[in-house]
Amino acid sequence: MKISLSDTGKRYNREWIFRHLSFTFESGTHYAITGSNGSGKSTLLQVLAGSLTHSEGTVHYERNGQTVAPDRVFAHISLVAPYLELPEEMSLEEFLQFHFQFKPLLPGLSTTEIVETVGLQQALHKQIRYYSSGMKQRVRLAQAIFANTTALFLDEPCTNLDAEGIALYHSLVDRYCRNRLVVVSSNEEQEYRFCSRQLSITDYKR
After folding, report:
1. Which of 201, 152, 143, 205 minimizes the C-alpha distance to 178?
2. Cα angle at 120 between 116 and 122, to 5 degrees?
3. Which uninterrupted H or E stretch holds 22?
4. What is the CA radius of gyration of the chain?
5. DSSP string for 151-181
6. Is 163 buried (19+), middle (13-18) or exposed (0-12) by CB count in 10 A?
7. d(CA 141, CA 154)
C-alpha cells in the first residue's frame, strides 16, 4: 500500500487542524504521527484511513501499482483506536468469526491461535461487555493486526494496557507487521519506538 498526500489539509468550520501536508506513506516502513494532546494526530490518521474526508489537496491510494478507489480503501486497512466500539453483546468467539468474514485472517492462522496469542482463551465465550478495559484493547489489537490487510493504523494503541499488554503489542507488531504499512498516532514513545520515520503534526498547523 502506498498513500500519497499532496498539499492536503483538514478543517472543522474555520479552524484548520493541519494544512499543506505533502507526504508519502509506503508499505514496509513504520511511521509515527506525533504531537501534543488535541493537536490533530487522530484526525490525520482518520483522513489516511479514509474515514474522514480531507478539506483541500489530494489523498491518493495505490496497491501493487494500481490505484485504489476511495470507496475500496477500507478493504486494505485495519484500524485500532480507543474510540472504536466493540459489539459488547457478542462473545469474543462470535465477534472474531463475524469480523473475519469481512476481512480474512492472515494466511496460516486460526481464531483459536489468535485468542491464545493475545491471552484471552479463558474469556472466549464471555460477552465482551464483561471484559476489562485492557482485555477490550487486546481484542481491538487482535481484530486489526491479524486481518490480512496491507496497512495498519494504530491510534494510541497501548491505551488501558498494563506492562504485559504493552509487551504483547510490541511482539505482535514485530512478528506480523514487518512488511506492512504501519502508522502510529501517539505522543508516548513506548507506543512508536519501532517506527523509523516521524511526522510532527505541529509542523503543518502554521
Report:
1. 152
2. 100
3. strand 15-26
4. 17
5. EEEEESTTTT--HHHHHHHHHHHHHH-TTSE
6. exposed
7. 9
Cβ count within 10 A of residue 89:
10
Determine the average pLDDT of the residues in 41-50.
Answer: 95
* 135 HSE (CA, 13 A, CB side): 18
189 by Cβ neighbours in 10 Å (0-12 / 13-18 / 19+) ranks as: exposed
Residue range 12-35, pLDDT digits in tens:
998 999 999 999 999 999 999 999
d(Cα 2, Cα 13) in Å, to the nearest integer? 30
Alpha-helical regions (H) of 41-152: 41-49, 92-102, 111-117, 133-145
What value, to the nearest 5°, has the Cα angle with vertex 70 and ends 69 and 76? 80
Give residues with Cβ within 8 angstroms of 45, minimum separation 6.
33, 79, 81, 153, 155, 183, 185
* Residue 91 DSSP class: B
CA quadruple 72, 62, 2, 202: dihedral positive or negative? negative
| pLDDT range class, residue 206, cuts 50, 70, 90 | low
The reply to whether the predicted model has a pTM over 0.85 is yes
Confirm if 76 and 122 have CB atoms less than 8 A apart: no
What is the H or E stretch that residue 129 is in? none
Say how far apart CA 22 and CA 57 lie, in whole Å: 9
Q: Which residue has the cell 478495559?
A: 133
In 3-state terms, what secondary structure has residue 20?
A: strand
